[in-house]
Structures are given as C-alpha cells and as structure tokens.
Amino acid sequence: MSKEPATVATETAMDALQKLEKAEKASREAAMLLQQTFASLNEAVFIVQSGTRVIVDANSAVETMFGYAHHEIVGKLTSCLHLNEQMFTRFGSEMIKGYQEKGYYETIYQMIRKDGTVFESEHCVTPIRDISGTITSHVCVVRDISERVHAERALVEKSRLLRELNDSLEARIEQAVEELRKKDDVLASQNRLLVDLAPEAIIVFDVELDRIVDANAKAEQLFGCSREILLMSTPRQFYMQKQPDGRPPETSFFENSDRAIAGEVLVIERAIRSAAGTEVVCEVRLVRLPSPQSLLIRASFFDITERMQTQKKLTRALASEHRLNEEQRQFMGLVSHELRTPLSIIDGSAQLLALAACKDKECLAHANRILSSTQRLSTLIDTCLTEERLCTSGWTPNIVSEDIRCLTRNVVAQAQAGTERHLIKCDPEELPDRYDCDPMLLQVLLNNLLDNAVKYSPKGGEINVRGWRADNGDVCFEVTDQGIGIAADQLEKAFDRFYRIWQIPGIAGAGLGLHIVKRIAELHGGTASCSSVQGCGSTFTVRLCNPRNS
Hints:
It is built from 13 helices and 17 strands. It is an alpha+beta fold. The protein folds into four domains: 41-144, Beta-Lactamase, CATH 3.30.450.20; 198-303, PAS domain (Beta-Lactamase); 307-394, Orthogonal Bundle (Helix Hairpins), CATH 1.10.287; 397-544, Heat Shock Protein 90 (2-Layer Sandwich). The strands form four sheets. It has a five-stranded antiparallel sheet. The protein has a five-stranded antiparallel sheet with strand order 7-6-10-9-8. Helix 10 (361-394) runs parallel beside helix 13 and helix 11 packs parallel to helix 12. It is elongated, with a radius of gyration of 61 Å. The relative contact order is 0.04. The mean pLDDT is 81.
C-alpha cells in the first residue's frame, strides 16, 4: 500500500533536516578545529576586511608579537602596525600587485609594536573570495624575523669586514711582493756586481741543458773566449785529458755534477786549456744554486798554477833536506865510530903516560889534560849518537816498571862524584815506589839536567833535585841551580837543537843536552820547561806521563 504524498513529503523533510543538522555539526566542528589551529599558531595571524583593511580577528600570537590584547587590536586599521601612513599605503598597493602576479603576496617589512619598538617581519597575505570570486577579506600571517635579520646583517657586516680585511691583506701582500721584487732586483744587481768583481772565474752550469748559462769577466779571461761563446759551451770542452786526479774528465765530470746536485760542496782540481791554448791548473769549488725550475751548479775556478809550482819546489826542497839530513846522520855515525878507535888509543896512551910520569909534575899535568880532553870528546860523541837515535832514527821507549826513587838517587850520587865545587841535594821521597818508564832514557834525562846545572854553575853552589807525583798521576822532576841563569829573550830557545849560550867562554858542549831532555820527555808523553833569572840560576821542570795509561 503506497504512502500518502504528505507522508512522503514529511519523511523527505525529516531526512533533509537531519542532513542539515549533520552538516551544521560538521561545520561547527570544522570551525572549532580551524579556530583551535588559528589560535595555536606561533605566527601572528590577522583576518583583515577587504577595502577598509580593518582587523576582523587575530590569534593569541598577535599579543606576544605586537603587544596588543585581542580586544585592543580587533576593529582597528592595520595602519597601527605600520611605521607611517606612507608605508601603510605602499603595503596595500604592493599587496594588490602581488595578487595579480601570483595570487598571494609575500614581503619583508618593518612593523611597529604597541610599545613603539620596530622589528623586522615576514608577511604572507592570502585573499579570501566569495562564490562570485570577489575578495571579501585577507588572511595575513606575520613572522618575527628580527633575530634572523640581525644575524644576516651581522653576517653581512662580517662578510664586509672580511672583504675589507682580504682586500687589505691582498694590498699588503701585493706591496710586500713588490718590495721583495725590488729587493730581489737589488740583490740580483749586487750579486751580479759581486760575481763580476770576484777575483775568481765563475760560471753557472745547467745540468739538464748541459751548457753554461752564466759567466763573469774572469771566466772569459780564464777560458779565453767571449761570454757569448761560453754560453754555448760546456766546461768539458776546456778540460784537458790528463787531470790531477788521474781519471778521465768525462767520467769525473758527471759524477761530480751528481754529487753537487745532491747538495755536496765539492773542492776539486782541474787542468784547463783555454781556447787560446793556455794551460793552467785550477782549484774548482762546486755548489748547487737554489732554483725551482732548473738544476744549476755554480763553479768557481781559482788559478793555482803558481801554487802547484811552489808546492813542487817545496817538495823537492823537503826531499833534498831529508836527503841531506840522512847524509848528515850517516856521516855523524861514521865519524863517531871512526873517532872512537883513535880516542881509545889516545886515552890509553895518556893513562900509561900518567902512570910513568907520576914524579914529573909537568908531564903528569899534560897527561891529565889529554885524559880530560879525550873524556870530553868521548862524551860529546855519545851525546851526538844519542841525539841522532832519539830525534832522527825514531826511538821506541822500552817501558818497564822501575824503582825511580833508587834510579834518581844513583844518578845524583854519580853526578856528585864528578864535582867537588857543588853540593847536589836530592829529595825523591814524593815519587811513587815504582813507575812505568824507559829506565835508560830516564837516566840520560837526569844526567843531562845535572850536567847542565853543573856546567852553568861554574862557581859552584847548591843544586837541588826534587821529584813528585802530580794529582793526575804524572811524574815530575825539578832541577834548580845557582848558576849564571838565562836571559828572558833566550828562554824559548833553551831546548832548541844545538842551542848554547855562546857568550860564556870555557863551557864545553854541543848544545844537545837539553834538546835530548825535551825529546825523552816527549817520548814519555810529557813536556819540559824552564824558568830562570839571569845571574841567579835556573829551574828546569820535566813532566812525564805514564805511556801505558795515557
């Protein structure tokens, strides 16, 4: 059974009413959600009426950003947020233009708060249109970008300062480079002047190009050709095949170049033949020059031809002197040995004569003079032979452990027996019990010191002999006399070979005694010295090092 039309209409109305209520509820929920979203935004949001530009609504962020309460801002013109009327008008005109170009408007503007402070803000304005497309209002979202703008401005300022600093640094660097260039020019000029004025010939050799790339005037003179020809040449062209080192010039040239490039400073000798045929010997100094592009060697040539000739003459002279010394040594040995036989005969005959003429005083005196002379001549021969062996033949000491206190006393006793006018005192107690030395040489040393003291104290007097061990273990001997002394200007010569105080007559000797003393001291690693006051006596000091411990 079909329903009545009225009933159908009623049901339809009821359905429509329910749909409407649902739509209204959804709309209210959507509006509430929109309102909640609108209120919770961090950005300040304004709803502005189109045409009048009156603020219709605003969210809570407006109060935080602009300082206005909701009731204070709603209903006001947006001009209260602009710095002045001119900027308010400008904002409106630019907004319309933005709508036309993009459909919305974005900009950065300076806005003013309620308390009058100005801040930078970013705006995004969107139009709200009705069904017909007419703009009824505007939604304006404002974001406070003061911190960002300040940071950007600070960054811009820092960038500007950095650019200024960079420009300043570039200017200073350019100035410094220019100053360095000028200094380099001055140094190059001075170096060129020094090279040109240098006393030696100087060339600069490029290893990779294998040719000379620079040369001074002295080099032109040495090699006998112009600078232009030198700069097309290699030094090998001027090297003679026979070199002082005896090696082929080609081989040694490249080896020496490699060593110089490696940083070694070389000093070598080279025989040079100039373009004119002149031959000279040069001392060559090779050193690498600093260069980022090339391998350069600076070669300085010193002409040592005269020096080589002088050295050859000196070598020949030394060889001749050595030969003469050897001949002198052989002659001395020969004469000494040849004299011993007749001296022995004369001495023996004089002793027999003295025995036979004991009652003839005059004959006895002559015999004693002969004996004294033969003894003196025999002593002189022994001294010459000892000196020859010590100073010429090369004596190696026979080092043994010796009781040097006893040795010293024996030498002093023997010397005292040979003189009646002198009193020889001996103090060897500070010497060590035993000492490593050559006993025979030490005895000769002490004999010569005492013989010298006796001879140069012709009026007699005391002679003191003292021995001791030094703190470092060396053994020292000191012999002091009361004789004629030695002049200050002659002290340095006292130990020279064959040196004697010639102005003193009647004192025999060959001038070898003290020289032998010094040589024996040196053979024991020690020294000999002398101090003296003319007319008051002399003191001779000998220091001996233990050869086994030295």
